[in-house]
TrEMBL record:
It comes from Eucalyptus globulus. Its EC number is 2.7.11.1. The keyword Glycoprotein applies. PANTHER family: WALL-ASSOCIATED RECEPTOR KINASE 3-LIKE (PTHR33355:SF13), WALL-ASSOCIATED RECEPTOR KINASE CARBOXY-TERMINAL PROTEIN-RELATED (PTHR33355). It comes from the Eukaryota. This is non-specific serine/threonine protein kinase. It is a single-pass membrane protein. Pfam families: GUB_WAK_bind (PF13947), WAK_assoc (PF14380).
Length: 308
């Protein structure tokens, strides 16, 4: 007597069950969380920047990235700093050092530097102020003239009038003889390095604007203004962005890739043109072969299994 149809179905499923994980593993799932985004917190992120590695231009991916807490961060050899704003029309970025002194808060700072090979440079209109310097500090070398005098000393008096100077061991309105102001850090090398231990200074401050009142340090704009090389845009990137993709890079050679929301990386755009980085032998092809093989296996079983 032959077995009922339900028994046959159950037996076939038992035979096919070990192969099912391979089928589902071979079918690529569309990622639920796309790795490239056009915002990081409240800051718009556009090419050549990216929110994670593989997004944007590789020359910038080593320095700028969106953190897990939703903050756009700027990384150099001297530390990690917050990106306050980006002006894409002028190719400038404002970064802030959490240990940098301002009128509200002063504390012993770390050093600041830009990586020599990075596409960033400190803008000339930055005013850097070294605070709480030893009288033996090399910044006071009369032969190097690193410290500005005259009108720039008002910056020192303004900062020393802040109550925050107590954080670096000075009294409010202390003598400005321990303060050094200069327009650009190029005097300390082409890598734009502020080595505070070497300079024998307690802290530094950076000012990129004075707001509406040059005489009121509480209204000054504290931060470091850097310029980046924004000549990396190409026709391929423009075409990619017009199709809704993100310009990025892929592979060992960090070649250009258009990153699409469906999880496919192409060499052109997201309209279906361009070749996939995964090549012709991809998960979808493997899945089709496995499924076809299982169908043949099912037919053979239906024919050859003896009746029970």
């Amino acid at each position: 007597m032959s077995a009922p149809p339900v028994t046959w179905l159950f037996m076939h499923l038992l035979v096919l069950f070990p192969f099912l994980p391979a089928v589902f593993a071979a079918i690529p799932a569309i990622p639920m969380n796309f790795t490239c985004h056009n915002m990081c917190g409240s800051i718009p992120v556009k090419y050549p920047f990216g929110t994670s590695y593989g997004c944007g231009h590789p020359a910038f991916a080593r320095n700028v990235r969106c953190s897990s807490t939703g903050k756009l961060e700027f990384t150099t050899g001297s530390g990690i700093y917050d990106v306050a704003s980006i002006d894409y029309s002028t190719g400038t970025m404002i970064i802030t050092d959490p240990l940098m002194s301002t009128c509200e808060s002063m504390q012993n700072s770390g050093s600041f530097s830009l990586d020599r090979a990075s596409p960033f440079s400190v803008m000339d209109d930055n005013i850097f102020v070294l605070l709480g310097c030893s009288t033996n500090s090399p910044v006071f070398d009369p032969y190097q003239e690193l410290c500005a005098t005259g009108s720039s000393s008002r910056v020192c008096r303004g900062l020393y009038s802040c109550k925050g100077v107590n954080g670096i061991g000075l009294q409010q309105n202390a003598p400005v003889s321990t303060c050094c102001v200069y327009q650009s850090p190029t005097g300390f090398g082409s890598s734009y390095a502020l080595d505070l231990p070497k300079l024998q200074c307690s802290s530094y401050s950076a000012i990129y604007g004075f707001g509406d009142d040059r005489g009121d340090p509480s209204k000054w704009r504290f931060g470091i203004s850097v310029q980046y090389n924004y000549s990396y845009s190409t026709a391929a990137c423009t075409d990619c962005e017009a199709s809704g993709g993100f310009c990025g890079f892929s592979g060992v050679g960090e070649s250009f890739a258009c990153l699409c929301h469906n999880g496919v990386n192409t060499t052109n755009n997201c309209y279906g043109r361009g070749s996939a980085w995964s090549g012709t032998w991809g998960p979808k092809s493997q899945a089709r072969i496995i499924i076809k093989g299982l169908m043949i296996w099912w037919i053979l079983l239906s024919i050859s299994l003896p009746l029970i």
